[in-house]
Design a protein that fits this description.
By secondary structure, this protein is of the alpha+beta class. It has one domain. The protein is 35% helix and 19% strand. It has a six-stranded antiparallel β-sheet, with helices on both faces. The longest helix has 20 residues. It is globular, with a radius of gyration of 17 Å. The N and C termini lie far apart (46 Å). The relative contact order is 0.19.
Length: 208
């Protein structure tokens, strides 16, 4: 049976593996120290939420259960370090340049020209009387050492924070195309990440 010391060592290795991937990207160095700290803490929260029998980690469990994708991104743009203590108060949170992306390569080309880090909002195609709605938000940080575009996201309540390839995120969210919209490309909005004063963070172009 794994001892507590062995558990902590294993968890540290798992966290560092995710952080090493993020540190390889163009966008990581552009984040503020507090934004980097929040992302690092998200991996602590993941692990502590697994210890539901320990009352010292009830807050982490609550955060995993209640925080969803938009709030995770909004937390990076808000004062404080508690990822769960955030509300979507800013009316311009979803303001972005929205365009269809029929393939992940098309989206990657747009992102490379826009620069990193950036926030991406995924919008469902219009159907019936609906103009569509923003179904998912995530942070894109740039390329890792393998050339994959790296995403930090929290897919939904009860889901953990994760580091993922943009290709995986793109494929996973194709499911928002339903009813008569199934043949229509998804719509992606791209904007700059902001600091907690609402100032846009400078982006850097993708490395070759």
């Amino acid at each position: 049976m794994e001892t507590r010391g062995e558990l902590l060592d294993r968890e540290k290795i798992e966290r560092n593996k995710k952080l090493d991937t993020l540190r390889e990207t163009e966008g990581w160095v552009k984040l503020s120290g507090e934004q980097r700290k929040k992302i690092e803490m998200s991996f602590f929260v993941n692990q502590r939420a697994d210890r539901e029998s320990d009352e010292n980690y009830l807050l982490s469990g609550s955060q995993i259960r209640n925080v969803y994708c938009h709030l995770a991104v909004a937390s990076l743009e808000s004062e404080g370090v508690n990822l769960g203590d955030i509300r979507l108060k800013d009316k311009d949170f979803f303001d972005a340049e929205y365009n269809e992306a029929g393939s992940v390569d098309e989206l990657i080309d747009r992102l490379n020209r826009f620069g990193y880090p950036c926030v991406v909002h995924l919008k469902s195609p219009p159907y019936g009387n609906s103009k569509g709605y923003v179904a998912h938000s995530f942070l894109v940080l740039g390329k890792d050492d393998k050339g994959d575009i790296v995403v930090w996201e929290k897919n939904a309540p009860r889901k953990k924070y994760q580091v993922e390839s943009l290709k995986v995120t793109f494929e996973a969210n194709k499911g928002w195309n339903w009813r008569e919209t199934q043949e229509k490309p998804m719509i992606y909005g791209i904007r700059k990440l902001r600091d907690d004063d609402g100032v846009e963070i400078e982006t850097v172009k993708a490395k070759d």
